[in-house]
């Protein structure tokens, strides 16, 4: 059965395992190698199940474990060319690591991983859609200032979608972040707000993607209840019933037991 495990989510680190119980890929490697090992173990997954590691972009919360992880296990690393160059320039990956550029899609064992480009303030960011061995697919789409048509289409074609619900716009505007940082987050190359996420989820449920998860919540400018209610309220007002018409979860900042079977 296809499964997705959100090992870590948020500004302190992001990492998702997607595949089956014995064969999968890691999307991003934030936090530390030890923390990823512990989170895999806590979710009943063996490190030997990881066929490759895909990095969305070079921001620390997506690759801080990469250098040690790739060296310790010899994992193959994939990313866009811009991200790979940035990882190398930032010393976030060993010079002799087994790394390659994904331009469109690659096959890892019995799985397929597609690259979909995202608008974010990084060298060449993207997100990934993974088709598990049983044919079911999942998309992890975070770190993007706006929803572009290519990402929306990939989400509509997936069985399970993690979509960024980064901040409440009012909390961000009235919060303690310095003005330039607020502007960066709110820009088209920043992060998706609760409000923008909710609108996309209405479209996804209409199109038949019914397994949904909110990801990359800001610790400073969001709360789990607020992110959930923003999406659930808009879906409800569009006639879609929470838990009966669709499922919605929040990716925990640290997961010990959260496995989504899709
Ligand atoms: Zn991030
Ligand atoms: Zn980022």
From TrEMBL:
Q: Which GO terms describe its molecular function?
A: hydrolase activity
Chain ranges passing through the membrane: none
Keyword Transferase part of the UniProt annotation: no
Coiled-coil ranges per UniProt = none
Put simply, this protein is called Putative metallo-hydrolase YycJ
Q: Per its UniProt record, what SUPFAM superfamilies does this chain match?
A: Metallo-hydrolase/oxidoreductase (SSF56281)
Q: Tell me the leader sequence span.
A: none
Q: Which gene encodes it?
A: yycJ
UniProt xrefs under InterPro entries: Metallo-B-lactamas, RibonucZ/Hydroxyglut_hydro, WalJ/YycJ-like
As recorded in UniProt, its EC number(s) are 3.-.-.-
**Metallo-beta-lactamase domain: residues covered:** 12-191
Q: Which Gene3D superfamilies match?
A: Ribonuclease Z/Hydroxyacylglutathione hydrolase-like
On the tree of life, the source organism's domain of life is: Bacteria
Q: Which UniProt keywords apply?
A: Hydrolase
């Amino acid at each position: 059965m296809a499964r997705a495990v959100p090992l870590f989510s948020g500004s302190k680190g992001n990492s998702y395992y997607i595949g089956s119980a014995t064969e999968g890929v890691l999307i991003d490697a934030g936090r530390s190698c030890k923390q990823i090992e512990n989170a895999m173990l806590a979710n009943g997954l063996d490190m030997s199940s990881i066929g490759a590691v895909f990095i969305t972009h070079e921001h620390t919360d997506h690759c801080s474990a990469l250098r040690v992880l790739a060296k310790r296990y010899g994992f193959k690393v994939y990313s866009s060319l811009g991200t790979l160059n940035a990882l190398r320039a930032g010393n976030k990956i060993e010079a002799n690591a087994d790394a390659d550029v994904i331009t469109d899609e690659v096959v890892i064992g019995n799985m397929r991983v597609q690259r979909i480009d995202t608008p974010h303030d990084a060298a060449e960011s993207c997100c990934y859609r993974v088709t598990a061995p049983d044919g079911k697919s999942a998309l992890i789409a975070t770190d993007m200032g706006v929803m572009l048509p290519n990402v929306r289409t990939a989400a509509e074609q997936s069985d399970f979608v993690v979509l960024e619900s980064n901040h409440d716009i009012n909390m961000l505007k009235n919060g303690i972040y310095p003005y330039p940082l607020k502007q960066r987050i709110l820009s088209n190359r920043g992060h998706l707000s609760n409000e923008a996420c909710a609108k996309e989820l209405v479209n996804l449920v209409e199109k038949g993607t019914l397994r949904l998860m909110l990801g990359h919540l800001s610790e400073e400018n969001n709360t789990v209840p607020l992110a959930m209610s923003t999406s659930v309220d808009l879906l409800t007002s569009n006639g879609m019933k929470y838990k009966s018409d669709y499922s919605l979860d929040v990716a925990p900042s640290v997961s010990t037991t959260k496995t989504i079977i899709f």
